[in-house]
C-alpha cells in the first residue's frame, strides 16, 4: 500500500496549492493484526489511487449495485453491511492506515468477498476515480464535526462536495449521512436543502431515524 493519501497539487507556476481538507492525518501505531492485513489482504482487496476511472465490473468481477462509504473508521459496520448484503458491492475509503488494516482483517475473518478499500483522500477519489452515474449509495457516517466556528469551513459536507456526490450517484441513488453532533446535523440539513436534484426522504423534510439496515 502506497503511503500517499494526498496527491500533490500545483498551480501553473509549479507552486504547491493548499486545499482545505476535512481531515487531519494521524498516523497511529499498527497492531500486528493490522500490519498482517495490510501486507497480505491489501493486495487482494486494496485499491491504489490512480489517475483513471475505476471499472467496477472488473474490480469486483461482476455487475452489481455499488455502495461507497467515506471515512469508515475501523470498518466494523462496513464489513457487517457487506456480509449482510452479498448481492451488492462495497467500496470503502479511509485515510488512516490502522483503520484500513482493521477493516481488511475483519473482512478476512468474516469471509467477505464483495468489499474493496482505499487509503486516500475521498474527494480526490470522487473527482478522479469514480465514474459519473455509477453509485447506488454514498454513505458518510460521523464525519469530523469541526465544532469550532473557525474550523467549520473544514466540514466535508459543503455544497460543492454534495454536488460532486450527486454527479456520481445513479438516478434514484441515495446519499446517506449520519452525525451525533446536533450543530453538524443542522449544517447538513441546511446544505442539502439548498441544492437542487436531491429529495429529502424524511416525511417532515428534516431528519430520518437510523435505518434497521445500518449495523
UniProtKB/TrEMBL annotation:
PROSITE patterns: SAM_MT_TRMB. One of its GO terms (molecular function) is tRNA (guanine(46)-N7)-methyltransferase activity. The keyword Transmembrane helix does not apply. It catalyses: guanosine(46) in tRNA + S-adenosyl-L-methionine = N(7)-methylguanosine(46) in tRNA + S-adenosyl-L-homocysteine. Its EC number is 2.1.1.33. It comes from the Bacteria. NCBIfam families: tRNA (guanosine(46)-N7)-methyltransferase TrmB. Catalyzes the formation of N(7)-methylguanine at position 46 (m7G46) in tRNA. This is tRNA (guanine-N(7)-)-methyltransferase. It comes from Klebsiella michiganensis.
Amino acid at each position: 500500500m502506497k503511503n500517499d493519501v494526498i496527491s500533490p497539487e500545483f498551480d501553473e507556476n509549479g507552486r504547491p496549492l493548499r486545499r482545505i481538507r476535512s481531515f487531519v492525518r494521524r498516523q497511529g501505531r499498527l497492531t500486528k493484526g493490522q500490519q498482517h492485513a495490510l501486507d497480505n489482504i491489501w493486495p487482494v482487496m486494496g485499491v491504489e489511487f490512480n489517475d483513471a476511472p475505476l471499472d467496477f465490473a472488473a474490480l469486483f468481477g461482476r455487475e452489481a449495485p455499488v455502495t461507497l462509504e467515506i471515512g469508515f473508521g475501523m470498518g466494523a459496520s462496513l464489513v457487517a453491511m457487506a456480509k449482510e448484503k452479498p448481492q451488492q458491492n462495497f467500496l470503502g475509503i479511509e485515510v488512516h492506515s490502522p483503520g484500513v488494516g482493521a477493516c481488511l482483517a475483519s473482512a478476512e475473518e468474516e469471509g467477505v468477498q464483495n468489499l474493496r478499500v482505499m487509503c486516500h483522500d475521498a474527494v480526490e477519489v470522487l473527482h478522479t476515480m469514480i465514474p459519473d452515474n455509477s453509485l447506488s449509495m454514498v454513505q458518510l457516517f460521523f464525519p469530523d464535526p469541526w465544532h469550532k466556528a473557525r474550523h467549520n469551513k473544514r466540514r466535508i459536507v459543503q455544497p460543492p462536495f454534495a454536488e460532486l456526490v450527486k454527479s456520481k450517484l445513479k438516478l434514484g441513488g441515495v446519499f446517506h449521512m449520519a452525525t451525533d453532533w446536533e450543530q453538524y446535523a443542522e449544517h447538513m440539513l441546511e446544505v442539502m436543502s439548498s441544492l437542487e436534484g436531491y429529495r429529502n426522504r424524511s416525511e417532515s423534510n428534516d431528519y430520518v431515524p437510523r435505518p434497521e439496515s445500518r449495523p
